[in-house]
Amino acid sequence: MDLSDLSDLIDLSALDELAGAVTAAIAVVPVGARTQWEVGGPPPTGTTVTAPAGVVRYEPADMTVTVGAGTSYRELDAVLAEHGQECALDPVDANATIGGILATGLSGRRRLRHGPVRDHLLEVRVVDADGRVVKGGGPTVKNVTGYDLPRLFVGSFGTLGVLGHVTLRCRPRPATARWFRVADGAHPGFRPSAVLSDGTTTSVLLEGAAADVTVQAAGMQECDPPGHIDGEHRGRISVAPGRVDAVGAALARERGVRWLAELGVGTVHVACDESAGLAAARAVAHAHDGWLLREAGGGDIDGYGRPLPNLALMRRIKSAFDPTGKLAPGRLPL
Amino acid sequence: MAVCWPETGAELAAAVRVARRHGRPFVARGSGTGLAGGATPLGDPVVIVTTRMNRVLDIDPQARVAWVEPGVLNLDLSRAVSHLGLHYAPDPSSQQACTIGGNVATNAGGPHCLASGVTSAHVLAVEVVLPDGEVAQLGGLEPDAPGYDLRGCFVGSEGTMGIASRVAVRLTPNPPAVATMLCDFTSIEAAAAAVSGTIAAGVLPAALEMMDARITRAVEDFVGAGFPRDAEAVLLIEVDGLADGVAEQVAAISDVARGHGARTVRIAADETERALLWKGRKSAFGAIARIAPDYYLHDAVVPRTRLVDVLRRVYEVADEQRLIMMNVFHAGDGNLHPLIVFDRREPGIWERVHDAGTEILETCIAAGGVLTGEHGVGIEKRDLMALQFSPDDLDAQARLRDAFDPDGAANPLKVLPRGSRCGELQRVPEGTWI
C-alpha cells in the first residue's frame, strides 16, 4: 500500500524566489502576461514580481492540475489536451497566465455551461504581504475545510497576496463543439455552453455528443465562432442576466460603442475607439443596476466608477492581509 | 440559555443587535441536522433559530433564480419550482429536513454535486446580518460583483461571519434524459477501481455513489429497493443530459464496470424504479439503526485515484479497533463517509471510536485528501485543522474571520483551533454531536 504524503511531492522551493521578492519590495506589482494590464484602477508602480511557470502536478485520472500561477493558458491547455481534458477558462489571449486570469476574475465565454472562473479553483498557495507562503482550500475536487481563501483571491487583483501555485479542476473535453446562428426568440437548446449576441445576430455554442448536437441544432445554421470585440477602450459590464436585452438596446443608441453580450450570464463586453464611449457604456451599466469594469483605456475613467459595496468590510479584509498597503496599490478602490 | 425564533429579516437583525448589546455571542440554527456541531451553542450564546423564516420569496423562472428565506427546507425549494421544470441542485441526504440557511453555512453537498458543484456554485447572493448587526448584501444577481468575493467567503463559513437572512439561489433545469444504474461487485476494491476507472475514462456522471455490503443489506431490509443482498459493494450511478450523450455514457460506464468485474449492470426502467434506488441510498443512515443504536459518521475526501488504497486502510483501522465499519459515500468525488456503528453502553467503546476516526482522517490527509468534503469543521474537526493547515495557513483564515467579526461574537469557538494556532491533536471536543 502506498499512502505516502503527497504534499512532500510538491516542490515549494520554486516559490522561494517570489517570496523573497515580495518580502524585499516596498510596493509589490504582480505581473503575468500583461494581457489585462490596465484592468481596474491605474496600473500600480513598484517592484514587479512574477510567479513560477509550468505544470507542478497533473493527475488526469483525478481531473485536477496544479500549476505555477505564471503558466500561460496556452501551455495548460496543451498539457490537458494530451489527456482529452480541459479547464474552460478561455481567455481571449491564450498567452494570459493562469494567475492573471484568476487575479482579475476573468471568466471565459463558456461560463454559461462551465461556470465562473472562481468555481474552477480548488487550492491556492499565495505569498502573503510578509513573504510567507500560505495555503488555502484543498487539492481535492470537493472540500469545505476552513474558510474559502481560494474564492477570496479570485478577482482580488493581487491586493491580498501573490498567487504562487494554484490547483484547478479539469473536465473531459467535449466530443463535439459547434457554433450555430439562433433566430430571434428561438430556444438555444438544452444547457448550451455559450449564447452570444451583438444585437443583430445571436450565436450559440453547443457541446457534447455529436448526435445530441445535431438534434439540438435542427433548423439552425452553423457559423464561425463570433469574434472578440476589440478597441483601444474596453470594459466589461456585469448586470443581472434579465437586463442584458435592455442594456444592449441602450448601448446600441451610443455612437461608436461595440458590444457582445453573454446571454444568460449577464456579462456584456464593450469596446470603442473613443474614451467617451466607455464612459457612456458605464452610465448604461449603472442605469441598469450593474457595473462596468474598465479593462483598457478609458481616459480618466477609473476601475469601477462607483464606491465598492460593503466598502468597510472590504477595507478590513485588505488591512488584515496587507496592513501596509504594499500589494498592488491602487488596483482596487479601497 | 436564550433562544429566539425570528420570523422576518428585521427580527433576525434585531436579535443579533440585542445579543450584542448585552455582550452575548450568538449562534444560528436551522434544522440542526449538521453533523460537525456547527450549530451547537458554545460560549453561552443567544441561539437564533431560522426555521420560522421559511418563505420562498420570489421565483424568476426566466432568470432561473429564487430568493428564499434561510429556513426554507432544501427539498421544499425543489418542490416549489418543480412545475417549472427546475430544481435546486445540491441535494444532501438530509434534504427533507435541512434548511437552505444551514446549507449555505456548511457549503453543503450531496450526491448530485459531482457534476453540478456544491452549494457555493448555486448561491448568487446572500443578504446577511453581519456580526455587528448591520445588514449587507454579499454578491448579486449580476455575474461578477465588484471587489472581493464576500459571497464566496460567507458560504461555508459555518455561522462565524453572520447569519443569512435571504438567499438568492440558482435553479437548474431538469435534464431531458436521465439514466440511473446499479452495478454490483464481489469486492470493495473492484467497485472502487471501477469508480477511478470511470473518471479516468473521461466520464463525469451526475452522481456516483458507493455502498458496501453491510449498508446494502441494511438498506434492503429497510426499504426493499431491490439491492443485491450478496454483493460486497454496489455503485449507484446516474447520468443525465440529452438522449445520445446519456446512452454513450451508460455504455462507457457499463464497459468500465464489467471490465472491473461487475456481476450485473441494472438500469432503472422507469421513474418509479429510479426513485426507489435513490430512496435506498438516502435512507442509509436511517437503516443502520437496525444494526446498532449509535453511529459516528465521518466525512473526508481523497483524490479519486487513491480510493482503493484508502478504503482498504479504513477497513483495516476498524478491524484493529474491533469496530463495525460501513461505507456509503459519494465515490465519484472521492468523498468518503466511513460510518462506525456501535453501542455506547459498551465499556471503552468511545475511545476506540475516536481513535479509529482520527486515524482514518490522518490516512486521508496523508493520501492528499482533506478533513471534510461537505459536513464542515464545526467543533468536531476544529482541533484537527492542523493536520491540513500550517500555522501560517490558519493565521490567514483567522485574519479573514476577524475582518468579518472583530469581536468574535458569531458562533464562537468553532472552525479554527483556539489559542496556539499550532492546535495540537486532541480528542473530539466535548459537546460534539455524533
CATH level 1 name of the largest domain in chain B: Alpha Beta
Shape of chain A: globular
Provide the CATH architecture of the largest domain in chain A: 2-Layer Sandwich
Through-space gap between termini of chain B: 22 Å
Chain-wise SSE layout:
The complex is a heterodimer of chains A (334) and B (434).
Chain A: H1 16-24, E1 28-30, E2 47-49, E3 55-59, E4 64-68, H2 73-81, E5 85-86, H3 98-103, H4 111-114, E6 121-127, E7 133-137, H5 149-153, E8 162-169, E9 171-172, E10 176-182, E11 194-197, E12 202-208, H6 210-216, E13 221-223, E14 233-238, H7 244-252, E15 257-262, E16 267-272, H8 275-287, E17 291-296, H9 311-321
Chain B: E1 2-4, H1 9-21, E2 26-29, E3 46-49, E4 56-60, E5 65-68, H2 74-81, E6 86-87, H3 100-106, H4 113-116, E7 123-129, E8 135-139, H5 150-154, E9 163-170, E10 172-173, E11 177-185, H6 188-200, E12 207-212, H7 213-223, E13 233-241, H8 243-259, E14 264-267, H9 271-282, H10 284-287, E15 294-297, E16 300-301, H11 307-320, E17 324-329, E18 335-336, E19 338-342, H12 349-366, H13 391-404
Parallel strand pairs in B: 1-3, 2-3
Antiparallel strand pairs in B: 4-5, 5-9, 6-10, 7-8, 7-9, 11-13, 11-14, 12-13, 12-17, 15-19, 16-18, 17-19
What does the model show?
Chain A is of the alpha+beta class and 334 residues long. Chain A has two domains: 6-172, Uridine Diphospho-n-acetylenolpyruvylglucosamine Reductase, domain 3 (2-Layer Sandwich), CATH 3.30.465.10; 176-296, no CATH class. In chain A, 22% of the residues lie in helices and 25% in strands. Chain A is built from nine helices and 17 strands. Chain A has helices at 16-24, 73-81, 98-103, 111-114, 149-153, 210-216, 244-252, 275-287, 311-321; strands spanning 28-30, 47-49, 55-59, 64-68, 85-86, 121-127, 133-137, 162-169, 171-172, 176-182, 194-197, 202-208, 221-223, 233-238, 257-262, 267-272, 291-296. In chain A, a hairpin with a 4-residue loop joins strand 15 (257-262) and strand 16 (267-272). Chain A is globular. Chain A starts with 15 loop residues before the first helix and ends in a 13-residue tail after the last helix. With 434 residues, chain B is of the alpha+beta class. Chain B has three domains: 2-173, Uridine Diphospho-n-acetylenolpyruvylglucosamine Reductase, domain 3 (2-Layer Sandwich); 177-286, 2-Layer Sandwich (Alpha-Beta Plaits), CATH 3.30.70; 292-366, Alpha-Beta Plaits (2-Layer Sandwich), CATH 3.30.70. Chain B has 13 helices and 19 strands. Chain B has helices spanning 9-21, 74-81, 100-106, 113-116, 150-154, 188-200, 213-223, 243-259, 271-282, 284-287, 307-320, 349-366, 391-404, and strands at residues 2-4, 26-29, 46-49, 56-60, 65-68, 86-87, 123-129, 135-139, 163-170, 172-173, 177-185, 207-212, 233-241, 264-267, 294-297, 300-301, 324-329, 335-336, 338-342. In chain B, strands 14-11-13-12-17-19-15 form a seven-stranded antiparallel sheet, sandwiched between helices. In chain B, strands 4-5-9-7-8 form a five-stranded antiparallel sheet. In chain B, strands 1-3-2 form a three-stranded parallel sheet, with helices on one face. The chains are: A alpha+beta (334), B alpha+beta (434). At the A-B interface, strand 7, helix 5, strand 9, helix 6 and helix 9 of A face strand 8, helix 5, helix 6, helix 8 and helix 11 of B.
